Amino acid sequence: MQSRQPTQATQPRHRVQPMHSAQPRQPTIATENQVATLPITPALPAVATLPITPAPPATATLPITPALPDTDVEPTTPTESSPVGAGSGRASVLVTGSASQQRGRRGDPGAGHTGLAMTPPAEPLMPAELGALLPRPRREVAPGAVHLPDWLDGDEQRRLVEACREWGRPRASGEPGMRATRLPSGGVMSVRTVCLGWHWRPYRYSRTVDDGDGGPVLPFPRWLAELGRRAVAEAYRDRAAGAAYEPDIALVNYYDEQAKMGLHQDKDERSPDPVVSLSLGDSCVFRFGNTEHRNRPWADVELCSGDLFVFGGPSRLAYHGVPRTRPGTGDPAIGLRAGRLNITLRVSGLGA
Length: 352
Ligand code: MD3
Ligand code: FE
Hints:
- The chain has 4 helices and 15 strands.
- Helices cover 12% and strands 22% of the residues.
- By secondary structure, it is α+β, with helices and mostly antiparallel strands.
- The strands form 3 sheets. The protein has an 8-stranded antiparallel sheet, with helices on one face. The chain has a 5-stranded antiparallel sheet with strand order 1-12-11-14-9.
- The longest helix is centred in the middle third of the chain and has 15 residues, at 154-168.
- It has a domain at 93-105 and 131-346: Jelly Rolls (Sandwich).
- It binds N-(carboxycarbonyl)-S-(naphthalen-2-ylmethyl)-L-cysteine and fe (iii) ion.
């Protein structure tokens, strides 16, 4: 995998490079090997749900995070101090690439030559308040990068959160379980991680927790590989691709309110097979860049609890990161009181 960030947020798993200058570094307080206790909700409240989906099930369902509209938002340049969509940006894709690209997506190809690039669009944008009423469609953000919003139902989310809690639990050896990874640069990632199958440590994989208790990495469960196959098959609408997918690494990341991950590439895996990403809890802004460098163009995509994202083909080596989460947006009913969990499935290509 890659280059993720230290304290400030980011640090590539592969190569530690400075973050994009547009992103101010805000040191997070994370101590090496700090134990991250997941804020698990004690009991699952029986919450009545908004009948957002066409046919609400008879039983009380999990109130899935309100859907995000497909609408594009003003082509504002996102910055940390003034994040696009903070509070109002409910569009799945907030900003894409260059201004010209944004104009193109608005179907207003002429605007670029008038010097009025930033003028409001002719058609009014969907009022942000209505955004939550609209479904978020599946979307191929870039070739091979497919976003399937609300892919996991409430029960699946609950079960995954429970599994993450078990994986992230401190162990008898003193191994803290989910913890902040220390980078060779001396930085410490603000995200807390626990690995299954192969242990990742910047910037390589091992079957033992070399930067921890030295014990064996947690096993990669069969059911998780099966979930990965379903994910790939559905994202690519390709049964064969799904059936052939054999992930043997899972990285489970926990983001507290301050945590973020800077732009990086995931290249510690030897296999070119796709990465499957599942999000739980608080929403986040996921930044999907290009394969060349960590500058623009990039697309900011809102990832919500239950969303699936598959990154394969030409997108496998794209720079990506999580500039921020949206604290308080998660539904406690899935068993996570605060923060965001992300599970990525990968194929190591390292052999048995
Ligand atoms: C695009 N995690 O663990 S998931 C990571 O939300 C990581 O915790 C982020 O980046 C998270 O390495 C983003 C989405 C993701 C994961 C792997 C990718 C996108 C990717 C690999 C290649 C391209
Ligand atoms: Fe990554």
